[in-house]
Design goal:
homodimer; 476 residues; Uridine Diphospho-n-acetylenolpyruvylglucosamine Reductase, domain 2; Uridine Diphospho-n-acetylenolpyruvylglucosamine Reductase, domain 3; Alpha-Beta Plaits; 4 domains; 7-stranded antiparallel sheet; 5-stranded antiparallel sheet; 18 helices; 37% helix; FAD-binding PCMH-type domain-containing protein (chains A, B); FAD binding (chains A, B); flavoprotein (chains A, B); catalytic activity (chains A, B); FAD-bd_oxidored_4_C (chains A, B)
């Protein structure tokens, strides 16, 4: 039997896609990456995946795991031409295997979407905190492969910190069962953490045991205006010290960025006073509380007001808007969440997903802007992101008299400038999007040589035939 | 120059210990493990460690890293006779390299004691949450090598979750610098997490960047009496849902265990009413809050009282004692913390450091007790531990008419019975103490075969000459 026929005998011919039907899987959602594959295979069971992996091993065909295909670095699109590959799409492997309310844990299969997981948790009166723009489409497997972050990391951590255990199919086609839903388990090397963030290059994550949390009964969104980025850092420190775990988000927005969003939304319900807008920086923070709503509402609303007044007196912030009901809460968040779409409307830019120690962000921003303006006169800089955990989206757009093509042709020069400065300031060139195929060379440049050596050894020992997502993360 | 002379030229002859001076390092603090080593070497710099590792590689001599030597599984005592070894003691490599308050992070060297780190954090108005009985002696390097847990895991996680970055000297004698103090960094495999918990078998952790937290202004200790273990689980779920991150500890104590502690302390200030003591189970929980003391005190004290009254009405708990001042807080905690010493006073027992999904703990305890009584009639069972994260200390003591030697001779049979049941219930045979040399065979029995295979491959790829702590964790 041929390779394709055997694949069909494993998953059914309806789930081996070639030709036209394969196209949507062969490029990413933004159309930035295109690849080739013998077929797209859509298994719905772990046993099928085992059989597929063994078959691929026999035929020396590589496997590119793909979840919701919402990645930003081309991690789930084939790019290696030294070997034929298939795309293994996880979207049919999407069952909730178990919910254990007393243990506050849930076991889900890799192809389950983040939204489905969030919804089922809520139905059971629990909260799964990972929250991303792509949550309707992205899968838990993809979230794990890239160690997804998002807006709630400040309080709940990345998905790594939300994960108790995982199940993996190895490149040899056997199951590595690490699914025990335990909060403490020191039995040998933490393979769970090795696979999380390995972007499908060491094996295929097929399921995960995840933590569930109590639902917060009440949330406040607060938009504050600030005179400087230094003040934003002081304000963050103060807020953390006063609200601790009740501080669930702390998002920075530059003035240029806020205006982009306001213009994009173009609706009077989002209107802000001119005096308020006339500031270089804004922070959207979220405070959450649990408990009897009226009791907590009175107590926390009062604490929030007193705290913000103190921060105005101390000069950390200039003004603050506190959400007064659920609709207002949603509209303040909508201002922040619309930034990526507003940016897209504004044009194509060169985007950086960076993180820095929070303390150096003011110096970095000032140095970086000077340096960019020196080398690329007139470019427009859009800064926003998760200041609470040091993660900035630092995006560069064309100058007014420049063409978009001309800016985009400078992509690698601008990357060079930004990433080398991030590196010098002790930061990371990939905070939450991963390496994929986009940043393989960048990683070689900036990652510690000792660490790269160990990474290569690990890859070779676990996947000696380079079967798993070749050409991603490492240049092998 | 001979091996020992070269060692002396690296660290100074005062810091190469042999003969009498070496003895304290060659056995653990409880005297359960004894080993041999050519010398104890005490470097005070990373460069010295690099030189030592290169020298050992040249002479094919193994390295056993040792911190405070407070481990419970013999992980830092040499046990491999196939190769000569040195003990590399980290206690002189103990500097605080950097405190970054705005980033809420601190960089410390591996030999720094946990107590020193806690104290320095407090001086800077920050909190480092790891808390262990051995904190005055144990080192951060040892804590990281074993992924230490303790009483605050429920809220803050194990030391893995408290770590931003680490620095490691590889078995080849180069530095793997992963010290960036970032909360989001997805640049390749998480080597940090591979080294954390690897018990010195993959390299020597020399420093770590750790998270700091705000200090809680007010804490309440609450001792409650319960009629059943099922009630304790219901009570835990209810408490988590109502207090979320303010619940900072949830410790289970059996009646036998509480009596041991009360008898050991033997002081009227610890006296409890007979009615209160007349229960099979007790929980000591801790609620913490941040904010203006008086304001928070009133609000939370009131919430706690209302909550406990509700739990009494619901039948989850029978009675509760809330700490009314700092002294009372300390004395309630002292009841819990004295258990290990009270146990020691009681005699030698067979101890298990296990974890389970919280939901199965009632069935496990009931099955386990039946099974133990069936096979080892009359043994006394002492149960306590961190119920909030499923981690129990499950200890078996001799029956009244049995000799201690007779019980201890049954150690492996009792291990077998307990560990196999833990395994069947989806638990872990080592929750927070690690594998060391004690549980190498147990790990072979219970760890998933696929996981063991990957672990062996990793060890061989990173440390092909088996230089680093041979015979620990894995049987190589």
């Amino acid at each position: 039997m041929s390779f394709l026929n055997t694949l069909s005998s494993i998953v059914g011919s309806d789930h081996v896609l070639t030709g036209e039907k394969a196209l949507p899987f062969l490029s990413d959602w933004r159309g930035r990456y295109k690849g080739n594959a013998i077929a797209i295979v859509r298994p719905s069971s772990v046993q099928s995946i085992i059989n597929i992996v063994r078959l691929c091993k026999q035929y020396n065909i590589a496997i590119v795991p793909q979840g919701g295909n919402t990645g930003l670095c081309g991690g789930s699109i084939p790019n290696n031409n030294s070997k034929d590959s298939i795309i293994l799409s996880s979207t049919r492997l999407n069952q909730i295997r178990e919910i254990d309310l007393s243990n506050n844990s849930i076991v889900v299969e890799a192809g389950c979407t983040l939204q489905k997981l969030q919804d089922i948790s809520l139905e059971k009166n629990r909260y799964f905190p990972l929250s991303l723009a792509s949550e309707g489409t992205c899968t838990i497997g993809g979230n794990l492969a890239t160690n997804a972050g998002g807006t709630q990391v400040l309080r709940y951590g990345n998905i790594r910190e939300l994960t108790l255990g995982i199940e993996v199919v190895s490149p040899d086609g056997y199951v590595i069962d690490l699914l025990r839903a335990l909060r403490k388990d020191n039995t040998g090397y933490s393979l769970r953490d090795l696979y999380i963030g390995s972007e499908g290059t060491l094996g295929i994550i097929t399921a995960a045991a995840l933590k569930l949390f109590p639902i917060c009964d009440k949330k406040w969104a607060i938009l504050v205006s600030l005179s400087s980025i230094e003040n934003a850092i002081e304000f963050l420190m103060e807020t953390r010290c006063v609200f601790d775990a009740s501080l669930t988000a702390f998002e920075l927005i530059s003035q240029f960025c806020l205006n982009l969003s306001l213009n994009f939304l173009n609706d009077k319900k989002y209107r802000l006073d001119t005096d308020f807008i006339d500031h270089p920086w804004f922070v959207l923070l979220e405070i959450s509380a649990i408990g009897d709503i009226r009791e907590v509402d009175d107590f926390m609303s009062n604490r929030i007001k007193i705290f913000l007044e103190k921060c105005i007196v101390l000069g950390y912030i200039d003004d603050a808007i506190i959400s007064f009901d659920n609709l207002h809460f949603a509209s303040l968040w909508h201002l922040r969440e619309s930034i990526p779409l507003a940016e897209k409307d504004f044009g194509k830019g060169i985007k950086h997903d960076i993180s820095l120690p929070v303390s150096v962000i003011p110096s970095f921003l000032s140095d970086m802007e000077k340096s960019l303006r020196l080398h690329f006169n007139g470019v427009q800089i859009v800064v926003f992101g998760h200041l609470g955990d040091g993660n900035l989206h630092y995006n560069v757009f064309k100058s007014i008299d420049q063409s978009e093509e001309s800016l985009l042709s400078l992509q690698w020069q601008i990357y060079d400038l930004v990433h080398s400065k991030v590196h010098d300031f002790g930061g990371s060139i990939s905070a939450e999007h991963g390496i994929g195929q986009l940043k393989v060379n960048e990683l070689q440049k900036y990652k510690n040589a000792g660490a790269l050596d160990i990474m290569r050894r690990l890859k070779k020992s676990v996947d000696p035939d380079n079967m798993m997502n070749p050409g991603k993360v490492l240049d092998i």
